[in-house]
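Handout, section 4.2: multi-component inputs.
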Amino acid sequence: MMKKIILGLFISVLISCGTGKTSKINQDDIKAKYAEEIKPDDLKEHLYLLSSDILEGRKTGGKGERMAVNYLTAYYEHLKLSAPSSYLDYKQPIPEVYFNGKSEGDSQNILAYIEGSEFPDQVIVISAHYDHLGMKKDEVYNGADDNASGTSAVMEIAESFQIAKNQGYGPKRSILFLHFTGEEIGLYGSKYYMQHPVFSLDSTIVDLNIDMVGRTDEKYKGKKEYIYLIGSDKLSRDLHKVSEQTNEAYTHLKLDYTYNEKNDPYQYFSRSDHYNFAKENIPVIFYFNGTHKDYHRTTDTADKIDFDLLTLRSKLVFYTAWEIANRESKLILDAR
Ligand SMILES: [Zn+2]
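Output:
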């Protein structure tokens, strides 16, 4: 029965993700054209499915998480994204995931890939964790914001880059779309990836990590469209500049650096998967909407997501990645 539901929902996604028709376009508008492929309705479809009760809160190693895996891999297969040659089914298996010394069973990171046309050895990672807290008693922790929002964003960004590639505008540098498991039990999936990287860490030039981007926090209630950026200037001022310029040119979000402060009492810089990249001296940006009263509660549900805001934030990541992927010079490590 569940299989049928998943299949039905997936088929409707297939129908809704048809590619745009090629037309004569101005070079300057190319990016914007493909950014428009990130659509609120598509994000909504992914997010509602990923955070639905039948996925049982996507607990690492659990049945619901495996359903999310099936959804992600079927999606990338449908889009015809490449899988890294070492994991042709998009799955990087993790044989045994431990939490507090106890085995949670096996799980996997999901990896889809677009090879760069000019500098294939330079890899940009766009990441989000897809696991969440699972169930307690018979209550589901749906994790709509945390992190079905980031997962859906990565899926849509990947689609946009793939459509661009199909129409002759593939990225010059390679892009790896990376969905981590085990984030909620201690950044496990990203830790595992760093120990078993598919592309050499020396040639991994940035990680743009998305974790909770579908909501508004107390500070911004009823205010301007915003996003917290964390880490952007820590290893590369060059990256920080690209990110700022991109936003100024295309997305006009208020970029809030409150949590980027060294003395941030919440220490968000170390609390999601990008941190494992930063520790290896790879520049990162963490995209985050801040917390809210539904954080890590059963009330983090899909009906509370702002899909227009999620779309705009996804576009910021897309434009930033596009710039890093296509500009002449490689990002440099030039932080103080
Ligand atoms: Zn999260």
